Amino acid sequence: MNSSIYRSEYYVEKRTATFADNLVAFGVAYVLNGIADGRARITIEDCGPYFAVICDPPLREEWVTHCQFFTGTFLLITVDRKSQQKLIKGTQIAVETVAAMPGVAPDYEQAKSDNETYWAWRRSVGDQWQQLQPPVEPHPDWELFRAINPAALQAANSAAAEWFQGQVAFPELLKTVLIYASAFPNKEEDAAKHWAAVCKRHGLKHSKQLSASQLINPTQGKGTTNSKAIFAKPGNLSNFWLTEYLKWVGLRWAGFTRLIKDSKDRKIYVLAPNRLDWEHHLGIREQFRRLMIGTGGAIQLDILAALRYAKAVLSYAEVSRDQSLLAQVFGTHQGVNRLVYGLDSAYYKNLGQSAAVMNIARIGIPSWIQPQTQNDIPRYQAVIDEHLRIVRNLDEKRGEEYELLRSYRDFLSTNELATLLAFTDAYSGFVIQRDKLAPQFTVHSLEVIMSSIAPPLSEITKSRGFRNLAYAIRMATVEAHRRNLKRNQDKYDVSYEVRYGLGQELLRKSAYPNEFIVALSEFIHDYNAENARMRERLERQGNSQPRGARSDVSIQDIDELLALMDKYRDPQMIASLLVAYGYASTYQRDETYTPERDTDEANDQDAGSTEESEEE
Predict the structure, then answer these.
(1) Contact, 364 vs 412, CB < 8 A?
(2) Extended beta strands in 47-96, E state
(3) Between 26 and which of 45, 250, 393, 579 could a Cys-Cys bridge form, CB atoms 3.0 to 4.6 Å apart?
(4) What is the pLDDT of residue 29?
(5) 3-state SS, residue 314
(6) pTM (2 decimals)?
């Protein structure tokens, strides 16, 4: 048996189709990395029915024999309500036993106090917090402590205690893990027998099974789920103790949890690895933890987690300044999905004494993030920041904004043009608000995404006629509204009618090509006529260089758009693209029909608009 457990590839079978399987894989990877101690690279790879945890070069027996004790999770110290004494609930381990072992037994009350002190300090210094040194840093696992205590405290401590007592025969304990993971399907029975024999030799009391906490087993709630009616106590389900321990390790090193805003409901996210190097994972995880501050609604939190994980990958690649690492992390076409498919999640509804799992899902990571060089990274980071601003501005408690967030989440998970355009179509009606403008996409951002998910459409979006029509839509909607806002009224010599609902009208008509062309023609006619009236009035006033004058749509623009419609024969798609680009902001006018005398003025105006967008 010994020869077969020292190898290069280990396995974790997928038993539940939930993040519980991912947790075991990360737990095994953590243990292998601890044994290798820098002498081998550990990689987790999704192989369909199982995860492969690869050790390169293969694990060696002497590494196991001489390995020093380590543990991937913790024994959480709490205060007993009756005796007011500190204890490690669910175990027989005395607090004094582990007091001198840093990181093994964190104090819940101390972590709570540190967290409260930190946030009181943040509130007191306001926006200056980034320039100041905090009096104390919150514990990095504080959110996990809150999730565990009190509902899962005994289960978590029991699993950690089983591992902790194994330090007297640590090489044998490691062999138990290797036996379990050395074959597919996993050798759970062999591992259990091996550990039972070791415990007998060393006089250790051990538990074959431990309670399956729902925090790490989202489909194993309290009760029974048999296909046939049988008698059973309505108690907790239980699992092999080793897999429960590995899940707690996985939750600490690959999980993320937050309370939903304004509630006690909770969401847990766990990475769904594709091919993830452990060293890269630790670096990205550190960046992700720094970025994942605050909370949000249930859908909003899904989106923030996915976008910020993608940003963490970019930050990790940027800090490394290694071109080969960039290729290794992103590959050529898969983007972030080369590392992870997404984030598996579970929604826990608070029921007072306990919580119930209401939803199990996976949120995708945007695969359109595909930097090829170090210089591409800031460009993609700016795009993510732009999306984060838009998402954070939406309030999930409002019906329209709730649907917008759902639509955006669909785009994140599918990475398809249709879902992106479904969001931009709906969002166009939301951008113009009574007394302000909601954050907009920029044309640059849309081009970055389009170039990844729909490169053949670049002929449309780069067409001069298409861009000039999008400009006309922009000037008649969001830009006209921006100028009418009180604080901007003195900046321009001219103001134009705001065409509320123009985007929605064009989208409605796009179901029938002829009706779409008629609607677009009517808009162009009204738009050019309004420009002509305004020019005539200003000339009578002697103002030959008005601030904020806009350009006409030309016959050539219309011809180019009609040619595109004839070629692609999809007016709905072209209408959606026009609305998306029309309601996006631009830092530099790419419309070439602006008269020469207006060029400098237009540039100044654009710069002003940019600043306003940032403020709003």
Answers:
(1) yes
(2) 50-56, 78-79, 86-87
(3) 250
(4) 97
(5) helix
(6) 0.88
Give the whole-angstrom CA distance, residue 271 versus residue 339.
10
Q: What is the DSSP letter of 76?
A: -
Please list, residue by residue across 353-370, b when 16 or more beta carbons sit within 10 angstroms of its beta carbon and e when fewer do. eebebeeeebbbbbbbbb
Q: Is 357 helix (H, G, I), strand (E, B) or coil?
A: strand
Q: What are phi and psi of 597, to 5 degrees?
A: -70, -20
Average pLDDT over every residue of 336-343: 88
615 CB contacts (<8 Å, ≥6 apart)? none
- Mean pLDDT, all residues of the chain: 87
Contact predicate 494/426, CB 8 Å? no
CA 311 to chain centre: 8
Amino acid at 166: G
Q: Which two structure tokens, joined as six digits, stand for 275?
A: 């091919």
CB 407, CB 420: distance < 8 Å: no
- Is the previous residue joined to 439 through a cis bond, with omega within 30 degrees of 0? no
Q: What per-residue confidence (pLDDT) applies to 432?
A: 84
User: Phi-psi bin for 436: left (phi > 0), alpha (psi -120 to 50), beta?
Assistant: beta
- Nearest alpha-carbon partner for 498 in 423, 435, 565, 581: 435
Q: How far apart are CA 18 and CA 216, in angstroms?
A: 9
Cα–Cα dist 540/534, whole Å: 10
